[in-house]
Amino acid sequence: MTAACGSPSTSSPRASPAPRWPTTASTSCSPRRNFALPESGKISFSASLAAEAINATPYDYRDGFAAVVLCDPHNGWVYDLCTNGDTVFAINEHLAYPGVTSPFTRVVNDPLFGPSATPGQLYHCEITIDTADKRITWQMDGKTVHEELVAELPTSLKMGMGIFTVHQIAEGASRSLRGQGFTAYWRDLRVRSCNRAPGRLPAPIAC
Question: pTM, whole model, 2 decimals?
Answer without folding.
Answer: 0.80
